[in-house]
Design a protein that fits this description.
Layout: H1 8-14, E1 18-24, E2 30-35, H2 37-41, H3 44-58, E3 65-69, H4 72-84, E4 89-95, E5 101-102, E6 114-122, H5 126-137, E7 141-150, E8 162-168, H6 180-183, E9 189-190
Parallel strand pairs: 1-9, 3-4, 3-6, 6-7, 7-8
Antiparallel strand pairs: 1-2, 4-5
Length: about 190
């Protein structure tokens, strides 16, 4: 990232992606901050700027292709690959019917091709891990994980892979029966 590039929080706030209130996350836990990835993804200039940051960080690793999990990872893989160079393809890993992810639609990875995995908002790391597994299963060699937002503030690792996020924040979450916002009667939004 260059000194003149806007920081990730500024870009996310300008896109209306940082929401505050009382939220129930997909995990069932509650918290007061939610990053709405689709506010980011609907703004091409914001998506482009953040993916430029990912590409700039991972360029020295010279990935052969970029893979992202459905849904948001499709756009991020495409945009990051565009910034890495004309020869870099962008794939996506779809959800399997019985869990996990796979590379479908004729996507193939040559044995040993180096792969950058990108995703929008990291919460538990499940989508990224499943995508990494799909890449390895297809014969690729993961070299890094790029994230727009890491809600675990860098505490989630991926087997020693180079990991970079445009924004790392610690978003506290609570079991519903321990949630102060519930006790205070703050209206709940299910995400």
């Amino acid at each position: 990232m260059t000194d003149s590039a806007p920081d990730a929080m500024t870009l996310l706030e300008e896109a209306g992606a940082v929401l505050t209130g009382h939220f129930q996350y997909a995990s069932g836990r509650h918290g007061d901050t939610y990053i709405e990835k689709f506010r980011l993804l609907e703004k091409p200039h914001v998506t482009e700027a953040l993916c430029q940051q990912l590409a700039d960080h991972f360029r020295p690793l010279e990935p052969d292709l970029v893979v992202g999990p459905t849904t948001g990872g499709i756009l991020l893989a495409h945009e990051t690959a565009k910034h890495l160079g004309e020869s870099i393809n962008a794939y996506f890993a779809e959800r399997g019917e019985s869990g996990g992810r796979y590379l479908g639609r004729g996507f193939t990875i040559d044995e040993g091709q180096t792969v950058l995995v990108v995703d929008d908002v990291l919460t538990t790391g499940g989508s990224v891990r499943d995508t990494l597994d799909a890449v390895v299963e297809a014969g690729g060699t993961p070299v890094g994980v790029g994230l727009v937002v890491d809600r675990t503030d860098g505490t989630t690792g991926f087997g020693g892979l180079e990991t970079f996020s445009c924004l790392a924040i610690d978003v506290a979450s609570y079991a519903p029966d321990e949630c102060e916002l519930c006790e205070a009667g703050v209206e709940l939004t299910v995400t």
